[in-house]
Design goal:
heterodimer, A: alpha/beta, six-stranded mixed sheet, 24% strand, globular, B: 301 residues, alpha+beta, four-stranded antiparallel sheet, 4 strands, 68% helix, binds adenosine-5'-triphosphate, binds magnesium ion
Chain lengths: 225, 301
């Protein structure tokens, strides 16, 4: 599903990531940890084609990301749901429309999806806030809205960047449950987080593999978690 | 980014959702609306000026082509000799293509409307007429008069309409000035819309980033902007055209032959040109915005 082969990345200065190789098989559940600033967000951006590796190859759905034009990347993003660390929304549109945005931009926004949309909002517990504007949401509400937007196209892959960064324990458990549910439905999930308790909680529910970025390299974390 | 008909079709498909993804931006909207309005208003006048100048140039030009004659009023025995002399002078005058004495039949035809068909022209002391056909540049009337006075004293040069010649030239130049003004107005509109679209695109860099994150193609993003600007320009231009035409009706008409300042009306096929103003402005804005969007999206990539 996602393959990295000797990937390196640098923002211009020294290399931030070096010699990463990884295969994310379909239906797997991965965590990615590492200290703040170690390059987790950068790694995810490499995976969904927002950044191009400075060396090596990134393959998404068996296509080399480097060979894709902007339109191809746009089409790929419809198959990859991303929960961004900073939850980017269109601040002038209410939550419902933000959540439905991937449908709108891919020209699938027509009758029938309304029921789906309501269901999805209920699933992330945002029914009451459906008409609020994103700036009016709490951090946790934003992250749930971001998750809803990430899955509305029912993508094959879900990449989540610190999805529980802003929320309390109880809410992060709910969010984790949503991700586990998606994984049980066959979706490939990759979550970047430095919340170790979240990883422990996940391990109790689903088989996961934990990766750690340390010293610019990718390691598989041991059983110490 | 797909260019051409596809984008046009996408624009025409009324897609309210796609419009909403770009936040309504106050000042670029007003700028586009206002410039399209003002420019369309000016375009109406430039068009009216051009059409009126064209009409004047054509009408006066036709009259001018047969504007001068020479009349020989001499005692019966002298006429033939003086006509010969006058023709010799005329044919050697620079600026005259041809000079030809009218036949009796032609003279009779000229008089028929006044005196009836059986006028015995031969028996009347009628002057002999000579038709002058001149080059577009014309001849030197004062010089010709002097030479005629010397060679054929009975010849009188009648060039009553020649004073209009410089005016006709001015009118025909005015017509091209009118079209040049319309072109400039179009170019100015295109640059203003490009400017406004650039400002709007730059102000919405964040929106564009979010749209890209959720899988929007360049064509989709561009069309959201293009549609908006084209519709604004269309609306503004429609308003400007309407007001411009209204103002034209306020210019009093001086009747048929008073000249062209009082003839600044739109007539006949001219209305077709006027009706074209708003859609042409819409198209200009369409392409200007597409051009701007393509560039900005390339830069933001
Ligand atoms: N656009 C950029 N240009 C230059 N440097 C950048 C850019 N984005 C990130 N960086 C730098 O790259 C490093 C890794 O950033 P990244 O966001 O990937 O870290 P992270 O592991 O996600 O951190 P956190 O846990 O705080 O989210 C940081 O030092 C950051 O300052
Ligand atoms: Mg990060």
């Amino acid at each position: 599903m996602i393959e990295l082969e000797n990937v390196a990345y640098s923002y211009g200065g020294g290399e931030l990531l070096t010699d990463l190789s990884l295969t994310v098989p379909p239906g797997s559940f991965h965590f990615l940890t590492g200290p703040s600033g170690s390059g987790k967000t950068t790694f995810l951006k490499l995976c969904y084609g927002a950044l191009q590796a400075t060396a090596g190859h990134v393959r998404l759905f068996d296509r080399d990301v480097r060979s894709l034009g902007r339109d191809d990347i746009a089409l790929l993003r419809r198959r990859v749901g991303v929960v961004h660390q900073d939850c980017q929304f269109l601040d002038h549109l209410p939550v419902t429309e933000n959540v439905a945005l991937p449908l709108a931009v891919s020209g699938q926004d027509s009758g029938g999806t309304d029921a789906n949309l309501k269901e999805l909002l209920a699933w992330v517990g945002l029914t009451a806030r459906a008409d609020a504007l994103p700036p009016e949401l709490s951090g946790g509400e934003r992250q749930r809205a971001a998750l809803a937007r990430a899955v509305i196209m029912s993508p094959d892959v879900i990449l989540a960047d610190e999805p529980t960064g802003n929320i309390d324990w109880e809410m992060s458990q709910r969010l984790l449950k949503l991700l586990v549910e998606l994984n049980r439905m066959g979706k490939t999930v990759l979550v970047a987080t430095h919340d170790l308790s979240l990883i422990r909680a996940a391990k109790a529910q689903v088989q996961t593999r934990v990766l750690r970025i340390s010293n610019r390299r990718l390691q598989t974390a041991g059983a110490d978690l | 980014m797909k260019l051409g008909l596809g984008a046009g079709a996408q624009m025409l498909r009324f897609d309210e959702k796609a419009d909403r993804v770009v936040p309504p931006t106050g000042f670029t909207a007003r700028l586009t609306l206002f410039s399209a309005f003002a420019m369309a208003f000016l375009a109406v006048f430039a068009l009216a000026l051009s059409l009126a100048a064209g009409r004047v140039a054509e009408r006066w030009g036709d009259e001018l082509a047969q504007s001068s004659t020479v009349r020989i009023s001499a005692p019966a025995g002298e006429v033939a000799r003086q006509t010969e002399a006058a023709l010799r002078v005329l044919r050697t005058t620079p600026g005259i293509v041809d000079a030809r004495a009218l036949t009796d039949e032609e003279q009779r035809a000229l008089l028929t409307p006044w005196f009836g068909a059986d006028l015995p022209v031969e028996d009347l002391p009628l002057p002999q007429l000579i038709d002058i056909e001149e080059t577009p540049e014309g001849y030197d009337a004062a010089g010709l008069r002097l030479r005629l006075a010397a060679e054929a004293p009975a010849a009188v040069l009648d060039d009553h309409a020649r004073w209009r010649k410089p005016l006709t030239r001015a009118a025909s130049r005015m017509r091209w000035l009118g079209w040049a003004a319309i072109l400039l107005i179009g170019a100015a509109t295109a640059s203003m819309v490009t400017l406004a679209a650039n400002a709007s695109l730059a102000a919405n860099a964040q929106v564009i980033a979010v749209l890209r994150l959720v899988g929007a193609t360049d064509a989709y993003i561009a069309s959201a902007f293009v549609r908006r600007f084209a519709l604004r320009a269309l609306g503004g231009a429609a308003g400007g055209t309407l007001i411009g035409v209204g103002a034209l009706f306020l210019v009093p008409s001086g009747g048929d032959d008073t000249g062209f300042l009082t003839d600044l009306s739109i007539q006949g096929w001219g209305w077709l040109w006027v009706l074209l103003i708003p859609p042409v402005f819409g198209l200009v804005a369409f392409f200007a915005t597409r051009f701007a969007a393509k560039r900005v999206l390339e830069e933001l990539a």
